[in-house]
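Q: I'm writing up a methods section and want to include an example of the input and output format. Could you take the sequence below and give the corresponding predicted structure tokens, formatted cleanly so I can copy it straight into the document?
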Amino acid sequence: MNPTLSQEQIDFFNLEGYLVIKSFYDMNRDIEPIHFAIYNIIGLLIKKYNLPFIQAPFSSETFDSCFQDLITHDRKLGSEAYDAVKQIPAFVRLVSSERHDSVFSQIRKNSFPGVAAGGYGIRMDHPGEEKFRAGWHQDYTSQFRSIDGLVFWSPLVQITESIGPLQICPGSHKEGMVPVHTQNGKEPGKTGAYATVLKDEENLLSKYPVVHVLASPGDLLILDFLVIHASGYNVSNRSRWSMQMRHFNFNDPTGIKIGWAGSFAAGKSIESVHPELIADRKGV
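A: Here is the clean output for your methods example:
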């Protein structure tokens, strides 16, 4: 059954730029098959590298058993798992769910929803790791496709304060497209989308409160492509696993103008598609 949003939910999203829907996904049908596939991929990596780790019996609470052992042994194994898990069939089926189309069409009237190629995946944010933590940003800058876009974000583990909840600036989508610096001088180790910094970031953030989104597996957080947000700091002893699925609007005029082009994941730079968004450019 496709979900029906209330007018109150739609109004809240339009005002704040985000919406949380509890238990949007069915744990047995939608989430557990993804958990089980991740568990098996971890098991295959243990076997591949002949490591002495023994996974706990599978459950949705233990699906990432031995993953911390893997990345402690060799951080590169985390990258191997990262590339693998986005190809799990149960996850790919969820990405293109009709339920997402339905929600998109209810929030954006007269839209023509599309799935952003390269805009979906499963993240693991490791404890204490800053290099790949997403700083304050708008998804449009790192994704493009169309300004009128939505991020469907859902955790695969319980999101607590210690594991690092997503941080959102409610109402910040009304800023429109914010120019960015493409080099992070404070954290030079970051590259690509992780290296971008919002223009006049400190003053911009001071205009908005910050909401920390605590959520459970099965919950859905929907974000406007222009709402300003950042990954939380993971100070726990477990990686934060979450799904990101980005959808755009084929009918969006800017999307049509740029040919629904992608950004970093599509191998295109901000300069080549939106030079006006480069904060270092004269006159910006």
